[in-house]
Amino acid sequence: MKSTTFSSAADAVASNQDLLEEILLRVPAKPLLKFKSVSKQWLSLISSSEFCISHAHRHRDNASLTAAALLFHGGIPHNNPSGGFNTIPLKDQCPKVPFLDYFEHPDVRIVQSCNGLLLCRSCDKSFILNYFICNPTTKKFRVVSFPEVEGFVYSVNLAFDPLKSADYKIISIRRLVWVSPRFQVDIYSSKTDSWTVKALNFSRDENTWLNNGVFCNGTIHFENGGKSLLCLDVENMCLKEMSLPNQMMEAPVGSFSDSNMFLGESWGHLHLTVTYISSHCLQFNIFEMAADYSGWFMKYRVNLETLIKASPVINLYPDLEEEACNQVSSACVIRSDSDKDEASKVVAFVNGKAISYDLKHGTLTWLCDLDPCPDLDDDRSDYEAFNVYQYFETLSCV
């Protein structure tokens, strides 16, 4: 009797498309990949772009669409089985991050992480750069074939917002020589599977740097060599310059300059973390861009010195020298709840150790140790600054 009742209930669900969709929308991305093999109906439903968008909205609203892990090319990437990058899980039950070992490309490097998709680059034996988009969750990837045009590629970036569309764009900025305008943009649309070319009007084109692109709120933000922030409006293809905050504002006592700046995004909030050169203090300030882009404001001032001194996890002076400076190699602000105007934690890489600082409760957690980079010159730090990329589980197609 129970078997018959269960079978009738299952048939009722299967025959009700709306009810089936409502149930599947609550399932995380990874199990849904296996559910595609249940039937053609389930395959068609889960593979649809409408379902992918609804799934992203559902898991964003209940705060489950958060970074599951961090990926980075720090420490020793050469002996790492993940194909050149390291991983740090951020969730207690975080599944194993899929490695990129299914690529037939040497020396794969991550260029950008954008809401679950990765823009990657490899270099072949002829020193030719190859770019591709991949989804580590689905293990699907697409090689980017650039149009044959003049000039040299200045920057390649990804623009993707799964809450608005299942489609993404690849933005390739070229710098032309002795030609006006000096910059042109090649735009690839996954929706049309085609490229378009547009001129990029930007008056201050001398000594312009487009480093470490971060996509947030329809705009790609670049670090301009520590001088300013350059913002590319993806819809209108307009590049504007924006001032950086006063990095030395509320700097720790005894610090004589800023050390590193780390630009990042979380839940639609743009952050800039600034570290300082100081032998007696381990502090970094976190600035946030106002929602109307009117300017930066100080969001958090994080001082880990007291916590670190009380913990054997991190040696404040790794070289056992009283005047040794702390080395903050990277920092990443992570939010876990879109309904609150507060960040959850900041993951920092300090003196060769990855630590997580809970911004709400003020607690410090050790995550892992890093091995020093090999074969560095004597005048370079064993733990140089590097970028950190957030990994999300997503159904997004490439």
Question: What is the element layout, followed by pairings?
Answer:
Elements: H1 2-15, H2 17-24, H3 29-35, H4 40-47, H5 49-61, E1 69-72, E2 86-89, E3 109-114, E4 117-123, E5 129-135, E6 140-144, E7 152-160, E8 168-175, E9 183-189, E10 194-200, E11 211-216, E12 219-223, E13 229-233, E14 238-242, E15 258-266, E16 269-276, E17 283-289, E18 296-303, H6 305-309, E19 328-334, E20 345-350, E21 353-358, E22 364-369, E23 388-391
Antiparallel strand pairs: 1-2, 1-23, 3-4, 4-5, 5-6, 7-8, 8-9, 9-10, 11-12, 12-13, 13-14, 15-16, 16-17, 17-18, 19-20, 20-21, 21-22
Give me a quick take on this structure.
A hairpin with a 4-residue loop joins strand 9 and strand 10 (194-200). The model is unreliable at 75-83 and 374-381 (pLDDT under 50). 14% of the residues lie in helices and 37% in strands.
Task: Report what the structure shows.
With 398 residues, the chain is mostly beta strands. Helices cover 14% and strands 37% of the residues. The strands form six sheets. The protein has a four-stranded antiparallel beta sheet with strand order 3-4-5-6, with no helix packed on it. A four-stranded antiparallel beta sheet has the order 7-8-9-10, with no helix packed on it. A hairpin with a 6-residue loop joins strand 16 and strand 17. It is globular, with a radius of gyration of 23 Å. It starts with a helix and ends in a 7-residue tail after the last strand. About 4% of the residues have low confidence.
